[in-house]
Amino acid sequence: MGALLCVENVSIGAGAQLVQRGVGFEVAAGEVVAIVGASGCGKSTLLRHLVGLEQPLAGRILYRAHDIHRCGSAQLARLRREMGVMFQSGALWSSMTVAANLALPLQLFSALSADEIAQRTRFQLELVRLGHTRDLMPAQLSGGMRKRVAFARALMLEPSVLLLDEPGSGLDPLSAELLDDIILHLQADRGMTTVLVTHEATSLFKIADRVVFLDIQSKTLTAIGTPSDLLAHGPPAVRQFLNRGGFT
Ligand SMILES: Nc1ncnc2c1ncn2[C@@H]1O[C@H](COP(=O)(O)OP(=O)(O)OP(=O)(O)O)[C@@H](O)[C@H]1O
Ligand SMILES: [Mg+2]
Q1: Rounded Cα gap, residues 120 and 97, in angstroms
Q2: pLDDT tens digits for range 26-83
Q3: Bridge partner residues of 163 (DSSP)
Q4: 215-247 pLDDT, tens per residue?
Q5: 42 backbone dihedrals φ, ψ, rounded to 5°
Q6: Of the residues 11, 41, 166, 169, which should be mutated to test ligand 1's pocket, given the most ligand atoms within 8 Å of the CB?
Q7: Where along the chain do its domains lie?
Q8: How far does residue 40's CA lie from ligand 2's centre (Å)?
Q9: What's the whole-model pTM score?
Q10: Which ligand is the nearest neighbour of the Cα of 45?
Q11: CATH number for the domain whose boundaries are 1-82+160-248
């Protein structure tokens, strides 16, 4: 079976700055792939490129064999609906309650009734153990709670692929473990494909099938493999990252 997502020789920039060059890897359907690297190496920038929000300087990104930067806006919108995205900041709509934040993607992009939307909102909020926050505004939540709400919102449209930017950072260990368990459950139960940015080496060993390492000095991908292979045979910077449980 072909890859669900192909990153082919991609170079990315932010402002006038070249961030990464010649990055290439594939993500198979049903795989959990972690993107790691030092702060500022371009992980969030790459994630924004993967969902078609930014245009690469060179190379192609294929999702289900469609070049997402050359397929036209209607097709891109259709493909994006299959992607559950969680940005590093959470990016909740600040003037809407938690429940309204979850319901909006369904109101915009599904034909579900108000009752069905309310039911799914309740279900996803319970999944991240935040059922009691449904009528609160984002500003009334802790940073970690906002992340869990953003994670729940990414699941609302029953995506085929999840793209998550540091879902576990800023969470207490139990909440971080809960998100890891949900990602693994979705993989086992629904064959969910997940691409996630993470700094947490413990979580990476638990959930990632493969790891992509972006190097900040050479500005390119320097290692790709299973966490245990990279720990044993990866370049020194990668082994150090995996040994220390993250960059400090
Ligand atoms: N909008 C922007 N304009 C200019 N430069 C930017 C912009 N966004 C990011 N950058 C720069 O691009 C580089 C990569 O940023 P990015 O946010 O992708 O890093 P990251 O790997 O996600 O870091 P972190 O682990 O801290 O989240 C950084 O040098 C950053 O300063
Ligand atoms: Mg980032």
Answers
A1: 16
A2: 999 999 999 999 999 999 999 999 999 899 999 999 999 999 999 888 888 889 889 9
A3: 85, 195
A4: 999 999 999 999 999 999 999 989 988 887 655
A5: 115, 20
A6: 41
A7: 1-82+160-248, 91-158
A8: 7
A9: 0.92
A10: 1
A11: 3.40.50.300
